[in-house]
Specification:
single chain, 164 residues, mainly beta, Immunoglobulin-like, 2 domains, five-stranded mixed beta sheet, four-stranded antiparallel beta sheet, 1 helix, elongated
């Protein structure tokens, strides 16, 4: 890939071959062609992406939720910000062992995320008896942006779940 600087802006040219001047049997003079003998068909000229992808900052990360298995449930509250701002985001909760631990986040969506903290409640519930539930598990809260083909906005919230 070739990178050019044009008016203090970086530009990339992908899949383009360097040109060489070769002799031509025609009377018109030398012929310019790509060194690989092909054409520039399929080449792309595009400005390089600025690092403007949103990034999440959680108030507490990792977050630990500890509760007795006899209670069957535990919860915690955390908040996050995004920089730069993003709109229409979804939150997805994942448990390391979904057959033993139910792991949820509420709310599951926000119209926008910016410099003002958005607060979420994370709830963990045992799906089995207290003595079968005892142990340490992990949870993950991902923030996704549907406008970006459901790409995750880093950083995920890591949750350590300790059932006593």
């Amino acid at each position: 890939m070739l990178t050019l600087i044009i008016n203090s802006r970086s530009v990339s040219i992908e899949n383009a071959a360097a040109y060489q001047t070769v002799s031509s049997p025609s009377r018109t003079g030398p012929l310019d062609k790509p060194r690989h003998g092909g054409s520039l068909y399929g080449s792309r000229f595009r400005p390089e992406q600025q690092n403007s992808a949103p990034k999440t900052t959680w108030a507490v990360n990792p977050l630990t939720i500890t509760f007795p298995g006899s209670s069957g449930t535990g919860s915690a509250v955390d908040s996050f910000t995004c920089s730069p701002s993003s709109t229409n985001i979804l939150l997805v909760a994942k448990s390391s062992n979904p057959t033993i631990i139910s792991f949820t986040v509420a709310p599951t969506s926000f119209a926008s995320c910016g410099s003002t903290p958005d607060t979420v409640s994370i709830t963990v519930t045992c799906l089995v008896s207290a003595n079968q539930c005892a142990g340490t598990y992990q949870g993950l809260v991902q923030i996704r942006n549907p406008a970006n083909y459901y790409g995750n906005i880093p950083d995920n919230l890591k949750v350590i779940i300790v059932v006593t």
